[in-house]
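ping. complex inputs:
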Amino acid sequence: MTRRVGVVLFPGSNCEHDVVRAIAGIGGQAEIVWHGATTVDGFDAVVLPGGFAHGDYLRAGALARFAPVMGAVADFAASGGPVVGICNGFQVLTEAGLLPGALQKNAHLRFLCVPAALRVDSTGSVLTRNVAVGTELVLPINHFVGRFVCDDATLAELVADERVVLRYLDNPNGSVDDIAGICNRTGNVVGLMPHPERAADALVGGVDGVPLLASLLDIAAAAA
Amino acid sequence: MRFAVHLEVRLRPTIADPEGATIERSLPALGFDDVSNVRAGRSFRFEVEADDESAARLRVSELAHRLLANPVMEDADLLSLAPLEPARLP
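pong. complex structure:
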């Protein structure tokens, strides 16, 4: 059966169609879910896409977390449903408390729009379950607020529990411990700054995002 | 009663503040050699309706912690909270 992925559209999201297209390209079915929706019933996985929800006013993700759909996303996550936040979606997940830490302005205060070399450091998340530890990927990054920060205790816990999913090989933004992506304790909620959906077609520069999205679809199939 | 509130939100001392650091680095070129420890932040001014000052403080604190500051990386300081109407003497 085709797995259904809900892609949440906040006012100001701008990567939702990229995610829909990438999921369709690997045999899944993705649909846009308006942020005013009060349920994500019927979906096997939920993606919070990149962009600038609510103009990034106050802080990136700070206003989006109060969207009606976020209550449904939190319930879905609590019941073990796979939830992935990409870029702005990662910021929303940290603001919502579904992932620890926070994203801050890049250390050098420059907007970054470059391919980033990354290493998979854990298979404990829905996005990396099928990808071997040590696998190196090149994915686009596209952010100003991408420096992951957290307190020392949180960092120690993330490292000890192997919840750092992706690390930069050459830290572009000053993130603590080169962190590009993390997951929650149960591995079903993942946040990452790089864009796997923009590396899902050889025509536009690479397919390194495919194994990550394929892993998500596999997990969604198992969870359904 | 209505209270006028002035709240400051800024990054915690342990969180690097690249904006403040960049401002500070540009100061010597302008002749401000005597300025240091620059930190950038945000200031919010708003009004709140409450029964009394302590109730107003409580509401402001809730608002600061739920929305205006991210406790993972920011602190919030109440700079002032004052009744909008002058208090009438009994």
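Residues 199 and 206 of chain A are 5 Å apart (CA to CA).
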